[in-house]
Amino acid sequence: WDYMVYDFRIHGANIVERHQNDPAIDAEPAKMLPAMAAARFSIFRVERIEPGLGIHFTDVLQGDSVFIVDYSLSHTAKIGSLVAARILPLPEFNIFSGVLAPVDERIVEASKNKLALLKSCHPDGSITPQERSELALYVFRQALAQDYVSLVAHY
Length: 155
Prior knowledge:
Elements: H1 2-6, H2 15-19, H3 27-30, H4 33-37, E1 40-50, E2 54-59, E3 65-69, H5 71-76, E4 82-89, E5 94-102, H6 105-119, H7 129-145
Antiparallel strand pairs: 1-2, 1-4, 2-3, 4-5
Protein backbone atom coordinates (compact mmCIF):
# COMPACT_ATOMS: atom_id res chain seq x y z
CA TRP A 1 0.00 0.00 0.00
CA ASP A 2 2.81 2.40 0.81
CA TYR A 3 4.02 2.28 -2.79
CA MET A 4 0.52 3.02 -4.08
CA VAL A 5 0.14 6.01 -1.76
CA TYR A 6 3.52 7.64 -2.35
CA ASP A 7 5.04 6.31 -5.56
CA PHE A 8 2.24 5.46 -7.97
CA ARG A 9 1.77 8.62 -10.00
CA ILE A 10 -0.98 9.64 -12.37
CA HIS A 11 -0.13 12.70 -14.46
CA GLY A 12 2.89 13.26 -12.20
CA ALA A 13 1.04 13.34 -8.86
CA ASN A 14 0.64 10.67 -6.18
CA ILE A 15 -2.53 10.26 -4.13
CA VAL A 16 -1.25 12.49 -1.30
CA GLU A 17 -0.43 15.33 -3.68
CA ARG A 18 -3.79 14.97 -5.45
CA HIS A 19 -5.74 15.21 -2.18
CA GLN A 20 -3.59 17.62 -0.17
CA ASN A 21 -6.01 20.54 -0.58
CA ASP A 22 -9.19 18.54 -1.05
CA PRO A 23 -11.98 20.08 1.07
CA ALA A 24 -13.89 16.78 0.92
CA ILE A 25 -11.30 15.07 3.18
CA ASP A 26 -12.57 14.76 6.76
CA ALA A 27 -10.79 16.96 9.32
CA GLU A 28 -9.11 14.12 11.27
CA PRO A 29 -7.53 12.35 8.26
CA ALA A 30 -6.61 15.76 6.78
CA LYS A 31 -4.30 16.32 9.77
CA MET A 32 -2.04 13.55 8.41
CA LEU A 33 -1.67 15.03 4.94
CA PRO A 34 1.17 17.50 5.74
CA ALA A 35 3.24 14.70 7.28
CA MET A 36 2.41 12.40 4.39
CA ALA A 37 3.43 15.11 1.91
CA ALA A 38 6.77 15.44 3.74
CA ALA A 39 7.40 11.68 3.94
CA ARG A 40 10.73 10.54 2.55
CA PHE A 41 12.10 7.21 1.41
CA SER A 42 15.70 6.18 1.99
CA ILE A 43 18.01 3.52 3.38
CA PHE A 44 18.74 3.75 7.09
CA ARG A 45 21.50 2.24 9.27
CA VAL A 46 20.75 1.44 12.92
CA GLU A 47 23.14 3.51 15.07
CA ARG A 48 21.67 3.38 18.58
CA ILE A 49 18.68 1.65 20.15
CA GLU A 50 16.48 2.96 22.93
CA PRO A 51 14.67 -0.23 24.02
CA GLY A 52 10.94 0.22 24.39
CA LEU A 53 10.98 3.52 22.52
CA GLY A 54 12.79 3.64 19.19
CA ILE A 55 15.96 3.78 17.17
CA HIS A 56 18.52 6.37 16.07
CA PHE A 57 19.33 5.90 12.39
CA THR A 58 21.72 7.40 9.87
CA ASP A 59 20.21 8.00 6.45
CA VAL A 60 22.93 6.48 4.26
CA LEU A 61 21.66 8.17 1.09
CA GLN A 62 21.25 11.69 2.51
CA GLY A 63 23.79 11.58 5.34
CA ASP A 64 21.61 12.96 8.13
CA SER A 65 20.43 11.32 11.37
CA VAL A 66 16.87 10.64 12.46
CA PHE A 67 15.12 9.13 15.48
CA ILE A 68 12.18 6.83 14.75
CA VAL A 69 9.64 5.82 17.37
CA ASP A 70 9.06 2.08 16.93
CA TYR A 71 8.48 -0.09 20.00
CA SER A 72 8.73 -3.47 18.25
CA LEU A 73 11.78 -2.60 16.19
CA SER A 74 13.50 -1.25 19.30
CA HIS A 75 13.44 -4.84 20.65
CA THR A 76 14.50 -6.64 17.47
CA ALA A 77 16.91 -4.38 15.58
CA LYS A 78 20.66 -4.87 15.64
CA ILE A 79 23.26 -2.11 15.55
CA GLY A 80 24.54 -1.70 12.00
CA SER A 81 21.46 -3.24 10.36
CA LEU A 82 20.25 -1.58 7.18
CA VAL A 83 16.62 -1.07 6.21
CA ALA A 84 14.96 0.61 3.26
CA ALA A 85 11.88 2.47 4.44
CA ARG A 86 9.82 5.61 4.32
CA ILE A 87 9.76 8.07 7.25
CA LEU A 88 6.56 9.82 8.16
CA PRO A 89 7.52 13.02 10.05
CA LEU A 90 4.68 13.67 12.50
CA PRO A 91 4.67 16.93 14.48
CA GLU A 92 5.94 15.33 17.72
CA PHE A 93 8.02 12.40 16.40
CA ASN A 94 8.92 10.30 13.35
CA ILE A 95 7.54 6.88 12.45
CA PHE A 96 8.03 4.48 9.58
CA SER A 97 5.30 4.28 6.97
CA GLY A 98 4.73 0.97 5.21
CA VAL A 99 7.09 -1.94 4.87
CA LEU A 100 10.71 -2.00 6.03
CA ALA A 101 12.95 -3.95 3.71
CA PRO A 102 16.26 -5.28 5.03
CA VAL A 103 19.10 -4.49 2.63
CA ASP A 104 22.84 -5.09 2.48
CA GLU A 105 25.86 -2.97 1.55
CA ARG A 106 25.64 -4.10 -2.08
CA ILE A 107 22.14 -2.62 -2.33
CA VAL A 108 23.32 0.53 -0.54
CA GLU A 109 26.11 1.05 -3.07
CA ALA A 110 23.85 0.31 -6.03
CA SER A 111 21.27 2.75 -4.64
CA LYS A 112 23.89 5.46 -4.12
CA ASN A 113 24.97 4.99 -7.74
CA LYS A 114 21.35 5.17 -8.95
CA LEU A 115 20.79 8.34 -6.89
CA ALA A 116 23.99 9.93 -8.24
CA LEU A 117 22.89 9.13 -11.79
CA LEU A 118 19.46 10.70 -11.19
CA LYS A 119 21.05 13.81 -9.64
CA SER A 120 23.49 14.16 -12.53
CA CYS A 121 20.54 14.88 -14.84
CA HIS A 122 19.83 18.16 -13.03
CA PRO A 123 22.17 21.16 -12.77
CA ASP A 124 21.23 21.74 -9.12
CA GLY A 125 21.71 18.07 -8.15
CA SER A 126 18.09 17.62 -7.13
CA ILE A 127 15.74 14.86 -8.19
CA THR A 128 12.11 15.09 -9.18
CA PRO A 129 9.25 13.44 -7.28
CA GLN A 130 8.98 10.91 -10.12
CA GLU A 131 12.68 10.10 -9.77
CA ARG A 132 12.27 9.69 -5.99
CA SER A 133 9.54 7.17 -6.75
CA GLU A 134 11.81 5.40 -9.23
CA LEU A 135 14.54 5.18 -6.59
CA ALA A 136 12.15 3.69 -4.01
CA LEU A 137 10.96 1.10 -6.51
CA TYR A 138 14.55 0.31 -7.51
CA VAL A 139 15.60 -0.31 -3.89
CA PHE A 140 12.57 -2.46 -3.07
CA ARG A 141 13.07 -4.52 -6.23
CA GLN A 142 16.70 -5.10 -5.24
CA ALA A 143 15.63 -6.25 -1.76
CA LEU A 144 12.93 -8.53 -3.19
CA ALA A 145 15.38 -10.04 -5.68
CA GLN A 146 17.67 -10.97 -2.79
CA ASP A 147 14.67 -12.27 -0.78
CA TYR A 148 15.68 -10.05 2.17
CA VAL A 149 12.06 -9.10 2.82
CA SER A 150 11.37 -12.69 3.94
CA LEU A 151 13.79 -12.09 6.85
CA VAL A 152 11.52 -9.52 8.47
CA ALA A 153 10.06 -10.66 11.79
CA HIS A 154 6.58 -9.47 12.70
CA TYR A 155 5.55 -8.94 16.33
